[in-house]
Amino acid sequence: MITRRRAGAAGLAVGYLALQWLGRTYGTSREERRAAMPGDDLVSRPQTRVTHAITIPAPPDRVWPWLAQVGWHRGGWYTARWVDVLLFPDNLPSADRVLDDFQQLEVGDLVPDGRPDTECFFVVRECEPGQRLVLQSTTHLPLSWRLRDRARINWTWSFVLTPEPGGSATRLVFRWRARTRPWWLTLGAHLLIVPADFVMSRDMLIGLRERAGERVDGPAATGRPALEGEASPARPSGYRRKGQR
Fold first, then answer.
1. Which of 4, 135, 192, 217 ranks highest by number of CB atoms within 10 Å?
2. The CA-based dihedral angle spanning residues 19, 21, 22, 28, taken in that order and rounded to the nearest 10 degrees
3. In angstroms, how far is CA 202 from the centroid of its own chain?
4. Are the C-beta atoms of 156 and 179 separated by less than 8 Å?
5. pLDDT band at 231, cuts 50/70/90?
């Protein structure tokens, strides 16, 4: 009995360590993990660093429109619907079409990542269509924590698109870096968020590949009618675009 318990515990430990490794490195080469990326300078001395990558069978200019429209009640994050239903029930299904209303992304724009009352969003820090997108957030914590200064986060998401030889495919590298406080938030990120990222980020990259890759030879469909009660897609209620007060 003791031997079985030890074997079971050892198996769980090995599985958890595998999730830790995959949660930090899924799909990447050693060179990609070590390479500098846009946005690295926005988080000095990060406590958590994750790099993922995927090859998409479409050129960068076909991948970019899907990337440009990411965000809450925009194009979504391309994760599986069961993930949204289970963990983020307020999310709409991720778009399966390119949405014209969300293609004009600029530095300083806000990309919402939750209901307006959560005040949770990314700020666009770099935006080069077909090449790179860098998002930064200090808001991905419960609002009450932020108001009471119980915890802080500086979090960046960086997407870099590189054409593969021949130009018919794209190497998409995604990196997030975070600096958090206090210690228990940092510990929680390492213990829980990093392993979960194997599911979440991997799902997002696969969702991008499925959407951008399936229409390589034909024009991408566009447009999504607003749902009843939904804010105008160009400017979600409760969020400001750059220059707005």
1. 135
2. 180
3. 10
4. no
5. very low
